[in-house]
From TrEMBL, chains A, B:
Keyword Cytoplasm: yes
Subcellular location: Cytoplasm
Keyword Cytoplasm included in the entry's annotation: yes
Biological processes per GO annotation: positive regulation of canonical NF-kappaB signal transduction
GO terms for cellular component: cytoplasm
Alphabetically ordered keywords of this record: Cytoplasm
Transmembrane stretches, start-end: none
Domain of life, per lineage: Eukaryota
Record organism: Python bivittatus (Burmese python)
Protein name: TRAF-interacting protein with FHA domain-containing protein A
Length: 179, 179
């Protein structure tokens, strides 16, 4: 308390809000390893991985159809700017990663717009960046969507992108998890 | 031997040749943790870090003036192409990273041209990509330069970029390691 008036001004922290949806989220444990509505602080210089293998991935999905490592997110600073951004890279050989209308194959990467849809398999994520100042950390905060984000955003007319060698499709389908 | 004729055709592996120079490399151990003239295989989905801290960095420099993590290299695939590339990101708050004529601050990143000079502090590196097909691995191969690469390449006229808060300069200077 005594240091309160003389301490450095507290920095704001860039936050990536991730609103997430999976058509089977009610009956299957796909998101059981995620904390919702909670800012999770991450180091600015780390690559944050998402996928099935919790030994490698900071944010695991409990789903046999997800790749061990599905994608990676990294934080960076734009040139000649105080503004930060995020880059996403597809680390799955089996599934395409769709960022708005861009299809990323294995090892393709792209800088994320401040607000965008990211989809793979039956997973839908709406990512939104909230500006901050810290160059040491950023936050990720997950929220669970109650219904399909694609339906809500009238994005159903987007060209579906399927991969013949994979059971993943861009849109929710009635597939048996065990088939 | 019996499988030789029926095995899959061996893939070529993308290789990043790094010819490296430090003005005190003869009398100080800066490069003692590096293996020279030896292909070192790295996973395509990892970020390879260079810096002082060997717990974090795959390629450590033994030099108190180097940041714990100086920079990171990642492998990626160009869009709609079978070609791979490398991206470099400055992970040091103290030193600028110079890629040809581009100055990278902390958390700035850039895709590397197929052949380029990368400098930080008194370190000079000539990076050259050799194309390969593997999407699982890439190689890094270090070579030691006997004299300054900047002198050799007539790059001395490039604008020097100094950081007032740091003892790093872009060009070799006669500084005492212990000062």
């Amino acid at each position: 308390m005594s240091d309160f008036e003389t301490e450095d001004t507290e920095e704001t922290v860039t936050c990536l809000r991730i609103i997430i949806y999976h058509p089977k989220q009610e009956e299957s444990p796909v998101f059981h390893a995620l904390k919702f509505c909670h800012n999770q602080q991450l180091r600015a210089d780390d690559v944050v991985k998402f996928g099935r293998d919790s030994n490698i991935c900071r944010f695991p999905f409990i789903d046999a159809r997800v790749s061990r490592v599905q994608f990676g997110l990294q934080f960076f600073r734009h040139f000649n700017s105080s503004e930060f951004g995020f880059e996403i890279k597809n680390l799955s050989k089996k599934a395409k990663l769709i960022v708005d209308n861009i299809e990323l194959g294995y090892l393709n990467k792209v800088s994320l717009p401040d607000k965008c849809m990211v989809c793979f398999g039956e997973y839908q994520m709406l990512l939104q960046k909230q500006e901050g100042q810290s160059e040491d950390y950023f936050n990720i905060c997950f929220e669970l969507a109650r219904k399909s984000l694609l339906q809500e955003k009238n994005l159903f007319l987007k060209k579906p992108v399927c991969e013949s060698s994979s059971s993943y499709t861009q849109f929710p389908t009635e597939m048996d998890e065990n088939e």
